[in-house]
Amino acid sequence: xxxxxxxxxxxxxxxxxxxxxxxxxxxxxxxxxxxxxxxxxxxxxxxxxxxxxxxxxxxxxxxxxxxxxxxxxxxxxxxxxxxxxxxxxxxxxxxxxxxxxxxxxxxxxxxxxxxxxxxxxxxxxxxxxxxxxxxxxxxxxxxxxxxxxxxxxxxxxxxxxxxxxxxxxxxxxxxxxxxxxxxxxxxxxxxxxxxxxxxxxxxxxxxxxxxxxxxxxxxxxxxxxxxxxxxxxxxxxxxxxxxxxxxxxxxxxxxxxxxxxxxxxxxxxxxxxxxxxxxxxxxxxxxxxxxxxxxxxxxxxxxxxxxxxxxxxxxxxxxxxxxxxxxxxxxxxxxxxxxxxxxxxxxxxxxxxxxxxxxxxxxxxxxxxxxxxxxxxxxxxxxxxxxxxxxxxxxxxxxxxxxxxxxxxxxxxxxxxxxxxxxxxxxxxxxxxxxx
Length: 436
Ligand code: PGA
Ligand code: ZN
Known about the structure:
The structure is a single chain. This protein is 37% helix and 21% strand. The protein contains 13 helices and 17 strands. The strands form four sheets. A nine-stranded mixed sheet has the order 5-16-15-14-13-12-8-7-6. A three-stranded antiparallel sheet has the order 1-2-3. The longest helix has 21 residues. The radius of gyration is 21 Å and the shape is globular. The structure holds 2-phosphoglycolic acid (PGA) and zinc ion.
């Protein structure tokens, strides 16, 4: 078995910005039987963030202002076609880890700045998909073999603010987590019903119901609290009980609010809070609202604040580190050693290869941290994260709201996987969240 061809092209993400798509062809006899020759192709597209962590692996962009305002990815594409393809074609690899090791060696930098994490990840994911096709197994099974697979609670970002929407809401993501269900299929129905109830409530209040980058509504609300209040109203209107059936998750993405050692509410009243005051705010929200998960409740450069927040709230809810960890096993290890968070957000393109992503997941589990699998605000039709969620047994993911094709593509893939698994599938439910 060997790689016969690697090819990349510039395609578009859901914001209409360029991104890298790669294809990897594999050919070989199967199970040592030279009469069965398989020739398969795997294809993958990398996503792209907007509220990116400072320590993310480098997303290589051309910077040529004459094309796509400098956002072209032709350099990353040619790094695949001219460097990676030349080095890896006609070669075979014993495992995903070996392939990824070869990619890392070709790049040779700690943050993937030479070839670009977008170039490396496109090839890494496409290879995983081609190997799954070669083995005639689903991607989740190629990534991890289990007897029983857990389908996730979809944490649906129904109100978008922060950098993802042009409104006056400071916090980036207000998510509903429909957990009181027997299956993913039922959970996503509950979520969608609530999403549609929310639309009619916002309409009746005279709010704008256009959607933000992740498919959530982006109304100009009177306060950040009002976002939670309208969601609770929508849960009731859809016939569910907040807390019992559907709980709330938040990603305020506060790195974006950090200025001169304080958190500034830039989009609403321009007031500011210290780390301690932010922790008090979250503590009071937890008392008031059925919140089970808080991601990036403090910013990436507020390590001391994070330690304090983990002491105060880490035994009450799931505290997810996104920008602070950047899916990086070395940074996560430091967080584990120093008592930061109890869960890690997993974004493949923050670290840049499938193997390193799996290493971070492994490290988290070994240290009793949860993993929360995530899309990016700039997404595509690629559904790798749906399979990764099932493979890793993470039990919850965030991949957008109740609409927009690039978000729904992941839900549809999870519906297919659940059906295919039949009685080999279980649904995660509320226990998947830390401290629940
Ligand atoms: P991003 O946002 O993809 O724009 O980084 C997602 C998040 O902050 O979790
Ligand atoms: Zn985040």
